[in-house]
Every structure is written in structure tokens, then in C-alpha cells.
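Support request, please re-run this one:
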Amino acid sequence: MGFVKFLGTAGARFVVGKQLRYSAGTWIELAGTRLLLDPGPGTLLRCRKSRPPLDPEGLDGVVLTHKHLDHSTDVNIMLEVMAELGHRGKKGVLLAPRDCLEGEDPVVLRYVRKYPERIDVLEDGSDLDLGAIRLIPVRHRHGDAETYGVILDSAEGTAGFVVDTRFFPELPERYVGCDLLVLNVVRLKPSPGIDHLSLPEAAEIIKVVRPKLAVLTHFGMTMLRAKPHELARKLTEELGLEVIAADDGLTVEARRWLD
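Re-run finished. Output below.
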């Protein structure tokens, strides 16, 4: 049975910089395919320290949603480790926006690009084959960083990851049909000019999508001070849908969104 494991749940510069929550990525196993989403600072360490253990050499792919450091710092070492430190040739796939690979500040170093079997560029409207998983990128609006949320469709349900973005009216409809919906919720209240979701905006998305399970993660200080578990409990009552808040190390098994 598949699962999603939150290696880290930090969401803003202060929370990441102070390591008030870990800033590692999200480990995803669906239908026998293993993916790592957004390997931020400390991802390799959290994989090695995980209980039960996670085996980075067993990854099938690494997905970058955008190039900001809290999402991409460990991408290069994870690509090397995925390829078993380069001892057995190319292995796995990297999926990333074009500006993670090109331009003045590519975050994926050129010398590690020899390790994946292939590199796919995320583009809105495309479908990408990852063995037993079909990955559908969803273009987000997040400052000047080219950013994509992802929908993973497999025999173990459909999981949507609403990553960093400002709210826009078309966003909720793009995730309709997801059984599991994971949302990066940095702020407690909306703030003009901030390209991150607030709790009320996340609630609006959940209300439209109506997933079997919604998980809040990627918290900034205003969310942490307001106690994410209490906020999730209130959303569950208000929406009539199961909403939980992730802690570092939380594992959510697929049966929770398949039942």
C-alpha cells in the first residue's frame, strides 16, 4: 500500500532558517513508484534518519516544483544518491521547470545531470509518464519563479499537491478529482502582495475539490503560532471533510484516501 511521508513541514524563510520545523521534502510511494518532491535543506539527512528507514537509492524520480531554496537545496545530492552515487550508471528521472535548468541561476548543477536516465521539463497541460504514475503539472503563480503544482494519478488514487502560489480563481478547479489534496499553507490570513496561500484560501480550494483527505503543510510563523492541528480540526467541522495538519515525519497511508 502506498503512502506520503512529510520529511519536513517548514514553509517560510524564518521557519526554515531557524529550523523550527524541518525543511526536507515529501516522500511519495504510489503503485510501487517512489518519488521525492521538493528536496529542500536537510532532505538527505531526514531520509537517512527516518524511522522506518527510507532508501534514497531506491527512488524512481525527483520532482522540483520551483527553484526557491527551501524546495531545491538538496536536489543535486539527491540526484547523485538516487543513481547510487554514480556507480551503476544512469538511474531515475528528474522533473523540473525550465528555469531550474536554464538561465543565469539554474539550481540543478550541470555535472549531476549525467545521473538521471532522463530529465523532463514541467509544462502546463502536459502529461508525464512515471511508470505506474501519470504526473500532470499545474501552473501556479508564485512571483518570478516558474512554479508547478502536481497531480499524481495511479491505481492507488489521485494525489494533488498545491505548492507555493497565490490564490487565483481558476486554481481550485484544476485539482477537482483528487482523492488526497496536500496544500502549502504559509500564512494564517491573506496578505496583499504575498504569493503564498493563506488558511481561508486553502479552505476555499478544499471546499471546491472535496477530497477524501486534505493535508495542510509548509507552515510559516503565523500558522505555527495559531496551532495547525486546531486550525485543521476547525476546518473539518466547517467543511464536513477530513482535514489534518502535517507534522515533521507524518506518514499518511493510501488507505486513508481510498476508503
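The two ends are 12 Å apart (CA to CA). Residues 203 and 235 are 7 Å apart (CA to CA).
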